[in-house]
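hiii so um. not sure if this is the right channel but i have a protein structure encoded as tokens and i wanna go backwards to a sequence. like what aa goes where. can anyone help
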């Protein structure tokens, strides 16, 4: 199990966790799935374990990811959805053969048609994106307040006032920046 990614199954939104694998999009962007094995790692911690991934499959994953990013960003800003992004998301959604499985203890698992089927995993992510962009799921798409991030995230807080894609990354960084700024102005004691 990889330690490079947090466990996304605990209340995380699959589609926006996936778009978050390219972070700091408006700063020094960091590609968190630069090679096929890293996508395998990410899918594993996301409950979509595959045994292998080819370079071509990784490229398809990037294509889907960027399309979800474009559509989710437009939705968060209440702009019209880019037609090409919608097309890509739909294509990936229909091509997979993943099945939802109910476990004896009442949790949902995804069963892919084969252990090498990255396409099946991508179809689950595409369907998840459709859920949140269409408003089928309870929550609100918003953009991270960090100017170097601006990631689309899905706010399920009661007040719908979440500002950061992740508290332990963007939220803390912003807090620290504000603290340092105040310190320079002499507003915070050492
Ligand atoms: Zn952020």
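sure thing!! here u go:
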């Amino acid at each position: 199990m990889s330690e490079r990614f947090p466990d996304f199954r605990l209340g995380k939104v699959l589609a926006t966790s996936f778009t978050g694998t390219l972070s700091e999009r408006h700063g020094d962007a960091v590609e968190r799935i630069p090679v096929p094995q890293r996508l395998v790692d990410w899918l594993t911690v996301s409950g979509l374990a595959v045994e292998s991934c080819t370079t071509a499959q990784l490229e398809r994953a990037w294509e889907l990811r960027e399309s979800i990013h474009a559509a989710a960003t437009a939705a968060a800003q209440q702009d019209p959805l880019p037609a090409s992004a919608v097309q890509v998301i739909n294509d990936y959604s229909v091509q997979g053969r993943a099945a939802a499985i109910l476990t004896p203890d009442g949790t949902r698992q995804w069963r892919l048609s084969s252990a090498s089927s990255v396409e099946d995993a991508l179809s689950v992510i595409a369907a998840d994106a459709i859920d949140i962009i269409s408003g089928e799921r309870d929550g609100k798409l918003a953009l991270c307040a960090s100017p170097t991030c601006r990631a689309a995230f899905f706010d399920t807080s009661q007040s719908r006032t979440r500002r950061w894609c992740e508290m332990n990354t963007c939220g803390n960084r912003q807090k620290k920046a504000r603290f340092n700024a105040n310190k320079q102005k002499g507003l915070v004691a050492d």
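oh and The radius of gyration is 18 Å.
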